[in-house]
Specification:
Length: about 290
């Protein structure tokens, strides 16, 4: 419980000194001011301990809680590889929907690689103009209170972190579409949050046409961004680091999975009917 809000989470790491780190969602602990209690259910009995926010990242909706004396029975979950998930594969969501602790539901992976703008999730500007990428869509029933809970594969490994559901006007129940942050991005973000408290996302400084197929059609180039003077509106990025691009999501997912500010990315660009090669040094996503 964070202030008046409640959600779910799971043990990610336990140190030799008994200090533990728990993964949950940013929106669960947002504005909690460290007024956070974590309840473990051990042998069927609740054990409540206090926690502090070690780090949080609005762009991936992830947060890490630090517990000084985690119960010895609380063990880290195994982390799986979300890049190996297949559509139709069974998955299991664990959490506390409506405060019903330790609930498990089952379903399948409906799709992978979804991209959602943060504004669609109620995040205000300036953060809302960016997207959460590489999202897992699944149909295991989740509801308010599941946020921050693990999405498991059939091996019991964490392949995602539940963070949102699709809703319909006038319907206040789960309608069969849940979303989870994939483990490949979760690990990347969480490890840095534990060390530094904040996470820096890579940034190219371009706006693109999300409906374009066959590459990334550049619509705008930020004059303060790293692509200024190298890309221009109307360019179509068809390759990055020798990987062919079919849709814009291919590029943004690659950046979030594997790249950091200060690193270079090589682009093959179609401009005025000709191909050119440019290198962009990625910047840090501004707020």
């Amino acid at each position: 419980m964070a202030g008046t809000k409640s959600g779910s989470g799971f043990v990610y790491r336990v140190e030799a000194n008994g200090k533990g780190y728990i993964v949950t969602n940013h929106h669960v602990v947002e504005d909690a001011e460290n007024n956070i209690n974590v309840t473990f259910f051990i042998n069927g009995k609740p054990v409540r301990v206090s926690a502090t926010v070690k780090g949080e990242d609005i762009y991936s909706d992830l947060a890490v809680l630090e517990v000084d004396n985690i119960p010895s029975e609380a063990k880290p979950l195994l982390i799986g590889d979300s890049t190996r998930l297949l559509v139709g594969e069974p998955v299991y969501a664990i959490g506390n929907p409506f405060g019903l602790e330790g609930s498990m539901t089952s379903g399948i992976v409906s799709q992978v690689g979804r991209v959602l703008r943060l504004s669609e999730l109620g995040v205000p500007e300036p953060w809302g103009k960016y997207s959460i990428v590489d999202i897992i869509q699944f149909d295991a029933a989740v509801n308010p209170g599941n946020s921050g809970g693990p999405l498991l594969n059939s091996l019991g490994e964490v392949v995602g972190v539940t963070f949102a559901i699709e809703t319909a006007e006038g319907v206040r129940a789960f309608i069969g579409i849940g979303y989870a942050i994939p483990s490949i991005i979760m690990k990347r973000v969480v490890n840095v949050l534990i060390e530094n408290g904040t996470y820096k996302h890579p940034w190219m400084g371009i706006m693109y046409d999300a409906s374009y197929i066959g590459g990334v059609l550049v619509k705008e180039v930020d004059k303060d961004g790293p692509s200024y003077g190298k890309l221009k509106p109307g360019d179509v990025i068809v390759e990055f680091n020798n990987h062919t691009i079919n849709r814009a999501e291919d590029l943004v997912i690659y950046l979030e999975r594997y790249k950091s500010p200060g690193e270079a990315i090589s682009l093959k660009v179609k401009r005025d009917g000709e191909f050119e090669y440019v290198t962009v040094i990625l910047g840090e996503r501004p707020e």
